[in-house]
Specification:
Blueprint lengths: L1 E5 L9 E6 L6 H5 L8 E6 L3 H4 L8 E6 L8 H13 L7 E6 L1 H13 L5 E6 L2 H7 L4 E6 L2 E8 L4 E5 L8 H21 L7 H7 L1 H5 L3 H21 L14 H10 L7 H18 L5 H13 L12 H7 L6 E2 L2 E2 L1 E6 L2 E5 L4 H6 L3
């Protein structure tokens, strides 16, 4: 088992560990008992995950709520159902919630835990690659609003993250690629995550593509650990996205607009992100922020992994552009683009002429 420490404000005891390894679900409560004194657990999962892994967590201290599966259900109505269940089973302040599922389950469970009785413990048990490398780490919890994605939420750290790599074997090819999109994101921003990193994720993805696709357990565990270490480097310095943490949104400004315009039903989050990354690379190339060579190498990596690079709809450019203003990264009525500026490095740019943005919207 590998461990990544997320060191957020040790004085407030908000630091926690990310455990990564095989068959960790079998000993989940052994790990959980070390970080919380809860007498009762509300386990939030969905109708896809529960039949696969729900019974592994069932014991006399646990109660379940099973949600419908999909991004469109990350809303206030479902949040209220979780809170109603917590009240029904008389969950107390010393008790805890467990998120068993992907990013949607993790986000909505974390937000419910943050606001229930002014905050109770919660544990993340991510069951998708995307959640294991990204959404389960860092404490961003939220629900969507019809005006935009993740507009209602909080920063609330879990007590523990348990990433069992065995669960990835049940992912569909589409869901696996969804997680790979976020991993590629880290490869494109890794030099900006920390002054020094001891590995080259971009090169690793180039060298081990076949092993990654075949879900080699050792390779996957290392890939997840590298991704979590990169995110941890950023979150440790900027928990509440006042500066550096914004770079984790690489490709997301376009992605969130795509998700909003398709009502969160057409594309997975990772598919929208891979399209968004391709679009921001094209914008950066057109503006000559990056070299021709780096542009080609980056797009080639996205293509090598068979990720989605375009949307099928014919959005009106103005409609798409306006949808980008629903994003949390808008400040002073300007869109903050996480822009590639050189190999594996990005910077925030908010002075991009509208005509160049519009040009890149089909």
């Amino acid at each position: 088992m590998d461990k990544v420490k997320v060191k957020i404000n040790p004085s407030k005891k908000t630091s926690y560990s990310v455990l990564i390894g095989e068959k960790l679900l079998n000993k989940a409560y052994d790990y959980i008992s070390k970080v919380t004194n809860a007498n009762k657990f509300l386990i939030v999962t969905n109708e896809t995950v529960y039949p696969l892994y729900g019974e592994k967590l069932r014991n006399k201290k646990s109660e379940f709520i099973i949600l419908p599966d999909g991004e469109m259900y990350k809303n206030m109505d479902i949040l209220n159902k979780i809170l109603d269940k917590a009240l029904e089973i008389k969950l107390e302040r010393k008790d805890a919630m467990i998120a068993l599922g992907g990013g949607v389950v993790g986000d909505i469970t974390g937000f419910a835990a943050a606001i229930y009785q002014r905050g109770i413990d919660f544990i993340q048990i991510p069951t998708t690659l995307l959640a294991q490398v990204d959404s389960s780490v860092g404490g961003k919890v939220a629900v969507n609003h019809f005006s935009g994605k993740n507009l209602i939420g909080a920063f609330y750290q879990p007590k523990l993250v348990i990433s069992d790599t065995c669960v990835l074997n049940t992912l569909s090819d589409r869901q696996f690629k969804t997680g790979l999109s976020e991993i590629l994101k880290y490869a494109f921003i890794e030099k900006s995550c920390a002054n020094r990193v001891d590995f080259n994720l971009f090169g690793y993805l180039k060298a081990y593509k076949d092993e990654i696709y075949n879900k080699n357990p050792k390779i996957l565990k290392k890939l997840i650990k590298m991704s979590c270490e990169l995110k941890s480097c950023v979150v440790n310095k900027d928990e509440k996205e006042k500066g550096l943490r914004a770079i984790l949104n690489f490709g997301h400004t376009y992605a969130h607009a795509i998700e909003k315009l398709t009502h969160y039903e057409k594309y997975t989050h990772g598919e929208a992100v891979s399209i968004g990354m391709k679009m921001i690379f094209e914008l950066a190339h057109n503006l000559e922020y990056i070299s021709e060579e780096y542009y080609k190498n980056s797009v080639e990596l996205i293509n090598d992994y068979g990720l989605k690079t375009s949307y099928e709809e014919k959005f009106e450019p103005e409609e798409f552009y306006n949808a980008m203003f629903s994003d949390k990264k808008v400040a002073d009525n300007k869109i903050n683009f996480v822009m590639p500026i050189k190999e594996r490095s990005v910077a925030i740019k908010n002075n991009i002429d509208k005509k160049y943005v519009i040009k890149g919207i089909k």
